[in-house]
Design a protein that fits this description.
Elements (H helix, E strand, L loop, with lengths): L1 H14 L4 H8 L3 H8 L7 H10 L4 H5 L5 H7 L5 H24 L15 H12 L9 H7 L2 E6 L7 E8 L4 E7 L4 H17 L6 E4 L5 H4 L4 H14 L2 H12 L6 H11 L3 H10 L5 H8 L3 H9 L20 H20 L15
Parallel strand pairs: 1-3
Antiparallel strand pairs: 2-3, 2-4
Helix pairs in contact: 2-3, 7-18, 8-12, 10-12, 14-15, 15-16
Length: about 375
């Protein structure tokens, strides 16, 4: 028990950016006692266990029970069809290959800090933007952003009948996080799905695996799901479309409390999200009346955007049916190249020994 508890306590404390003194003060325990717990030299009392689990908002079982491999949980689930499980098997293989490349090159990604559940989705999105130095400007590539901050994003096509937008897994023993985004979705929906999964990475990684239904990406339907999913979707919206920037743009250039449809399309192109996502944000901010929102929502976004701007932004493009090849991160290919170079240099430095005949050539 001591070893498992010690490892998870230290991991949570470090992910929260706390010193042993700060954690001890927060839970009413001495820093010396925290140090002994993390070293596995002291068994936590019931009082200490309750205080620590309450502070980190974890079940006591989290500190005491070994967790099953998330891929094993997914593949054993009766809620996932066999066609989708085949994709998950491929996903697992790619994750393992990625981890091998990181080990080979010594380039393991450091995990981002773990956020507590006490913040609102908007506050957490704003804090994460500050942490990354993003200000309130658009995120031009959520996949690259997540990747360099410890969450490996892979895009793979899932069967239409699966009704899955994405899957998140955290491999605790490897300290590695992976997110699968359904590449059959439109590019705009993939961006929202990625931001949603990024929230799970920042806040819910210890609840891995997480499987997101398509409906959790739709504000009107997400309320039917768990508070965790509602939180992640609200985070995704605020993270991708900062309200402060929307207000700044409207007040600076549009100068109207009610936006025209072309103005909506301009804003959605600016933030790089889908038209429905932009419409929902503008409705919440009261820049669209209910009738405007309903009218705009029904329009053919592809055709009207092309008519206005002469082209369609990639966010609206339908990526097509399932069966598309996987899209692996650029970093994956970079590490593969580096691993190949390391293998070549090792071979040059230590060439394989050639076999020699046991016969003495001079004996003949």
């Amino acid at each position: 028990m001591n070893e498992l508890f010690a490892a998870r306590l230290k991991k949570l404390r470090e992910e929260s950016g706390l010193t042993q003194e700060e954690l001890g003060e927060a839970v009413g325990l001495s820093s010396e006692y925290i140090s002994l717990l993390e070293a596995g030299k002291r068994t936590p009392s019931i009082i200490a266990l309750n205080r620590i689990s309450k502070f980190f908002q974890k079940n006591i079982s989290y500190f005491l029970e070994s967790r099953e491999n998330p891929f094993a949980i997914l593949l054993a689930s009766e809620k996932i069809d066999e066609a989708t499980k085949k994709v998950i098997v491929d996903f697992q293989k790619k994750c393992e290959e990625y981890l091998e490349l990181e080990a080979r090159t010594g380039r393991h990604l450091q995990l981002s800090p773990l956020y507590s559940g006490s913040q609102s989705p908007q506050n957490m999105a704003e804090e994460e933007r500050r942490r990354l130095g993003l200000g309130n400007e658009p995120i031009r590539d959520i996949f690259r952003l997540g990747e360099v901050n410890g969450c490996h994003f892979l895009r793979m096509s899932l069967p239409e009948e699966s009704r899955i937008s994405g899957i998140f897994v955290f491999l605790e023993d490897k300290e590695a996080a992976f997110a699968l985004v359904n590449s059959s979705l439109s590019a705009g929906k993939q961006v929202v799905a990625a931001a949603h999964l990024y929230c799970h990475y920042l806040r819910d990684r210890d609840e891995s695996p997480v499987v997101d239904n398509l409906d959790v990406l739709v504000d009107e339907y997400v309320t039917l799901y768990s508070p965790r999913e509602q939180f992640a979707q609200a985070f995704a919206t605020h993270f991708l479309i900062p309200q402060s920037k929307v207000k700044e743009l409207v007040e600076k250039d549009v100068k109207s409390r009610r936006l025209t449809y072309p103005q909506v399309l301009f804003l959605k192109r600016y933030f790089g999200v889908s038209t429905p996502a932009m419409l929902r944000t503008l409705r919440r901010l009261n820049y669209l009346s209910r009738s405007q929102f309903e009218n705009y929502f029904k329009r053919n976004h592809l055709e009207e955007e092309k008519a206005i701007f002469g082209e369609v932004s990639v966010e609206e493009v339908d990526m097509g049916p399932s069966g598309l090849p996987p899209v692996l991160p650029e970093r994956f290919w970079l590490l593969k190249k580096e691993a190949d170079l390391i293998a070549f240099e090792e071979q040059e430095t230590h060439p394989p020994e050639t076999g020699q005949s046991s016969e003495n050539p001079e004996s003949n």
